[in-house]
Write a structure and sequence with these properties.
By secondary structure, this protein is mainly α. It has one domain. The longest helix has 36 residues. The chain is globular, with a radius of gyration of 19 Å. The termini are far apart.
Length: 254
């Protein structure tokens, strides 16, 4: 995970500026649909999770921070890794001071982000986990992350299938743009400062996933693969939501 200069500084800077600018434009185009009167009515209902989930997210986030602070130098920077970011998002949904619109958007994006948790079970790297019970905690917190979005989905607090194809594309683009901005504009400079290859933003993984090459294009290819993964994840979530609505509808008729 030590950072290496796989890309030239010029290529790194050009990609970071260009990708951040492109995703910022997409984000600004999406904002009106998230702040319209119609959207405000939708978001007016609080979606705070139950007390058990609030406590769980607080404890998991605290444990994650503790492992990072007491680990090797600059290990705290790994809080920008996807699953750690998801715990932060879960914690934010439990804070009363966070506006319902933001909480709603976080959960909608999580329906796309789920695939980031799924792939951990296929390509997990626990090589730098050496503290007491750190490996056990690693797997426990990822198992918990599998179930959290389905709480919001199956309780109908945040439906995934409402709004049709327009809503589907809107939330998918919001997921892609926020992730792209976060990792290119924030995680990349942090990688350079911490000298750690955070989320493979400076060097490709030793064994790249399908569609990602060991060339200077690896970050662009990874971004495209991420967008495809988010699309698939949201499509599966919408399918589950539609099946749930069908079962609930038949139960009510019966």
């Amino acid at each position: 995970m030590a950072a290496t200069w796989f890309l030239s500084p010029n290529r790194l800077a050009t990609e970071t500026i260009a990708v951040t600018a492109a995703f910022t434009v997409i984000l600004l185009l999406l904002v009106p649909s998230l702040t319209s009167p119609k959207a405000t009515i939708k978001f007016s209902e609080s979606i705070s999770p139950p007390v058990t989930l609030r406590i769980t997210s607080s404890l998991c986030l605290a444990a994650q921070v503790w492992y990072k602070i007491t680990g090797y130098e600059n290990k705290l920077a790994f809080m920008v890794m996807p699953c750690n970011v998801l715990w932060t998002c879960c914690f934010l949904t439990s804070l009363p001071v966070v506006h319902p619109t933001i909480r709603y958007c976080i959960v909608q994006c999580w329906y796309s982000f789920q695939i980031l948790v799924w792939v951990v079970f296929a390509i997990a790297d626990t090589g730098d986990l050496y503290m007491p019970f750190e490996i056990e905690y690693f797997w426990a917190n990822h198992v918990l992350l599998l179930f959290i979005p389905f709480y919001f989905l199956l309780t109908s607090k945040v439906p995934a299938a409402s709004g049709g194809i327009v809503d589907f594309l809107k939330w998918w683009l919001l997921s892609c743009s926020t992730t792209g901005i976060f990792y290119f504009a924030f995680a990349t400079p942090l990688s350079i400062l911490s000298r750690l290859n955070l989320n493979y933003m400076l060097s490709p993984p030793p064994v790249p996933p399908p569609g990602v090459s060991l060339t200077e294009n690896f970050r662009i290819e990874s971004m495209a693969l991420m967008a495809v993964g988010f699309f698939i994840s949201r499509l599966i979530t919408v399918g589950v939501d539609l099946m749930k609505n069908l079962v609930v509808g038949k139960t009510k008729k019966a």
